[in-house]
């Protein structure tokens, strides 16, 4: 699809995905939560939360659109990249820019930490209510831009869709490339 990198689409549980790094749709507190955040902390164990608490003590958490890195704990993945998606408030509050930031900053963190494969959940499309169609467009566009324009070592990006609706939307987006 893009330069030397491959992009995969799967439906399933991101905690079971094989990748150097998996991305967590965290919240600004970094203290865990529901949805994919809860699943990652449950599967990865307490080492992840311990590192999140250290980061919280050092820098007060993670801002919307930013990304921070911890161990993968008991997960197969070496790293978890925690990024905070925007809450959807109708679209006039920089939601689009912040969601782009999440994808770009997560990929940058993967490169900085020498991860050559990375798996993304459908950031912001659960509890944060970002419209799935708009979010899938942004995810695919931002990832492809990064893979084409940057001196990246990333060889594989996996989009992990939890629900059928997202899977169909991503299929359609990826067709364009
Ligand atoms: P946000 O607060 O960013 O909306 P959520 O965790 O509520 O985060 O939802 C983000 C996406 O992650 C949703 O599409 C949800 O269906 C999905 N999701 C929930 N659990 C998992 C999981 N175990 N693996 C992959 N995706 C998941």
UniProtKB/TrEMBL annotation:
Domain Macro positions: 1-177
SUPFAM superfamilies xrefs: Macro domain-like
Pfam families given in the database record: Macro (PF01661)
Signal peptide feature range: none
InterPro entries per UniProt: Macro_dom, Macro_dom-like
Gene3D superfamilies registered for this protein in UniProt: Leucine Aminopeptidase, subunit E, domain 1
Record PANTHER family: GANGLIOSIDE INDUCED DIFFERENTIATION ASSOCIATED PROTEIN 2-RELATED, MACRO DOMAIN-CONTAINING PROTEIN
Protein name in UniProt: Macro domain-containing protein
Organism: Paenibacillus borealis
């Amino acid at each position: 699809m893009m330069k030397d990198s491959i992009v995969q689409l799967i439906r399933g549980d991101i905690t079971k995905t094989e990748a150097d790094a998996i991305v967590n749709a965290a919240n600004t507190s970094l203290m865990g939560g529901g949805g994919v955040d809860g699943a990652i902390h449950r599967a990865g164990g307490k080492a992840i939360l311990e590192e999140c608490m250290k980061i919280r003590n050092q820098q007060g958490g993670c801002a919307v659109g930013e990304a921070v890195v911890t161990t993968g704990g008991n997960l197969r993945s070496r790293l978890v990249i925690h990024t905070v998606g925007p809450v959807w408030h109708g679209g006039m509050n920089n939601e689009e820019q912040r969601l782009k930031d999440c994808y770009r900053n997560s990929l940058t963190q993967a490169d900085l930490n020498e991860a050559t494969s990375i798996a993304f959940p459908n950031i912001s499309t659960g509890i944060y209510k970002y419209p799935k169609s708009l979010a899938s467009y942004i995810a695919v566009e931002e990832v492809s831009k990064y893979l084409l324009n940057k001196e990246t070592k990333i060889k594989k990006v996996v989009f992990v869709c939890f629900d059928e609706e997202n899977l169909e939307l991503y299929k359609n987006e990826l067709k364009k490339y």
